[in-house]
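HOLO CASE FILE
Compound: ribose-5-phosphate
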Amino acid sequence: MITCTETAQTVASDLTNLLEEPLVTLDSDGSANPYENETVKPDERVVVVSSTTTSGAHLELLELQERAAKREPDEIITVMPYMGYARQDKSFEDGSANSARAVAKAIGSGTDRVYVVNPHNVAVLEYFGVPSEPVDAAPELATPLPKDLVDPVFLGPDEDAVWLAESVQEAYGTGHVDNFEKLRHSATEVEMDTGDRDFSGSDIVLVDDMVATGGTMSEAIRMLKHQDTGHVFVTCIHPVLAKDALSRLNQAGVDDIHATNTIDRSVSTVSAAPPIAQYLD
Ligand code: R5P
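Model generated. Tokens follow.
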């Protein structure tokens, strides 16, 4: 059976359809809601799905694991479409916490296995202390792109995003891959070096793991607008879209934005469930 926090209802419901397993709400004693009892066996696996976008979602996930354990299932599997705090994966200043390790240790103690969709850094998976694997949803991002892109370039705003751009390009079937160099000045401001790259005449698909403040993508779009490119699309796995990120992208001149539903936003048009289902099948 599948159960989920408030923050992961779309992914959980897509998984339910793909895996044909019931999606149930667990009561505080671990039992399922009465109307669902007929379809739930006591000795089955429980898949807990949660995007930990808020501290409340973290707590809800821990509570769901606790409730799942009361049913004494064969296995508790935790699926994190989006893992919050994954970027806080070391002590950046003396005395600061490694938040990724702190939350992963807590989550790992209530589960037998963990799957995380495109964690910012796969090294955080070892913090769970149980078998954990990353799930790559990048190929799904090719689906909503127009089929008739002109000489498309799949562009990572920095070197770290190149493999994601390659994933999307491969799924799209044509075009080539490139990247800019990024220098981050602050949490919201970045500088972009395009080198002597010339993308005139090409449609551009910018690909990154997440859009948070929109600083990275809006700067990349701004640089592209100095050239005579075709359409500029932004695609990302995790649409964090903090504060005015969406308007920053629109003001910079993006033509369209697509993201997966690891976080539920207006641009979350792509389901991350198919690649997750492959691991759970
Ligand atoms: C950074 O390493 C990530 O891959 C993204 O580029 C970054 O998180 C985007 O953040 P923002 O939208 O705030 O520039």
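CASE NOTES: The longest helix spans residues 55-70. The chain is about 25% helix and 20% strand.
CLOSED: yes
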